[in-house]
C-alpha cells in the first residue's frame, strides 16, 4: 500500500482539502495518522470493528490493548456512554480540549475490538485544530492509539510516523512537530474516586484541584514485571523501548554526571558505543560518548517534548547502551520519569 503524506500549511483552502481527503479515507474504513497536541495518533472509524482490527495489525499491537476514542465536542460523550458521571463533565470543562483521557462505561455502539473486550471506553477531546477538524469531517469518532509500531517510542513528528508505518496505512497528515511530546494523562472515572492510570501533562495535582481527590494506580511507577497489574492494559508492556540497553542514573547532579562518565568510559573501553541523555546543565561534563541534550532542568516541558525523538535518534546512531540522567518528579517531570523508567525496563542506578 502507498501511504499518502499531506502537509498542513496554514493555507485554509489547501488544509481543508487535506482534511476532506483524510475524512474520505476514514469513511471507507481506512487508516489515517494525524497530529494531536500530545503525539501523533493512528486513526480509524471508532464504530467500525474492522478499522480497529486494521489499526492493531498496522501497529503490530496486541488486541487486548484498547484504543482511545477521539471526539470533537464534549456533548459527544453521550454517544459513547449511557452513564457519564457528572464529575467527568467537571474535568471535561476544565481540561478539554486537552491532553486528558477519561475512562467511562461504554455503551453497545462501541465495538469490543476498540476496547480490547473491556466494558469501558477511553475518550479524549484533543487540543489540536487539525485533529478536531479531521474528526468532525469524518462524521464519526476516531479510535486512535499512538501512531508508532508497537514497542517503539510514540511519534512526535510526521517523519517518525513515516519511519514506522509507511506502506502500512493509507495517509499521514503532517502537522509538523508536536508540542507536548508525551501521551495524554489517563484517569479512570468508573469508580468512586478518579484513578490516575497514566501520568501526562495534566498532573495529579491539577486533577485534584478540579475534583478534590485522585488515587494513583499502584502499578504506576513499578516494573513491567511487578506484582501489581496496571489497570490500563497498555501500561504493562515495555513501551518506548530503544534498541540499546538503557539505564537511568539518579542522585545529586554532579555525582550523576561522574557516574555516567565512568559507565561510558567502561563501555567504550570494551568496544561498546555508549549514548548519553542529559540536561543542558550537565552536558559540558562529557567529552566522549554519543550525547543528546533534552533541554534545561528548569524547563521540564522542553525535556518532555524531546524525549521520544531522542530515543529514536539513539536507535539511528546505533548505540549499544544509553545512560539517562533522572529528572525531578514535579509537574510533568513525573510523566517524564514514568516514560524514562519504562524505556529503561526500570533499570536504575542510584548514586
Ligand atoms: O495522547 C494520547 O493519548 C495519544 C493520542 C494519539 O491521543 N494516544 C495514545 O494511545 O497514547 P495509546 O493507544 O498509545 O495509549 C492508550 C492507553 C493504553 O495504555 C491503553 O491500555 C489505555 O490507554 N486504555 C485505553 N482504553 C482503556 C480502558 N478502557 N481502560 C483502561 N485503559 C485503557
Ligand atoms: Mg502508544
Topology:
Blueprint: E1 4-7, H1 12-27, E2 32-34, E3 41-45, H2 49-59, E4 68-70, H3 77-80, H4 86-95, E5 100-105, E6 120-124, H5 129-138, E7 142-144, H6 158-165, E8 171-174, E9 185-188, E10 195-198, H7 204-211, E11 215-216, E12 245-250, H8 253-269, E13 274-279, E14 290-295, H9 300-317, E15 321-325, H10 333-343, E16 348-350
Parallel strand pairs: 1-8, 2-8, 4-6, 5-9, 10-11, 12-15, 12-16, 13-14, 13-15
Antiparallel strand pairs: 2-3, 3-7, 4-7, 5-6, 9-10
Helix pairs in contact: 1-5, 9-10
Bound molecules: threonylcarbamoyladenylate and magnesium ion (MG).
Structural overview:
The protein is 32% helix and 20% strand. The chain has helices at residues 12-27, 49-59, 77-80, 86-95, 129-138, 158-165, 204-211, 253-269, 300-317, 333-343, and strands at 4-7, 32-34, 41-45, 68-70, 100-105, 120-124, 142-144, 171-174, 185-188, 195-198, 215-216, 245-250, 274-279, 290-295, 321-325, 348-350. Strands 1-8-2-3-7-4-6-5-9-10-11 form an eleven-stranded mixed beta sheet, sandwiched between helices. A hairpin with a 6-residue loop joins β9 and β10. α9 (300-317) runs parallel beside α10. The longest helix has 18 residues, at 300-317. The relative contact order is 0.14. The protein binds threonylcarbamoyladenylate and magnesium ion (MG).
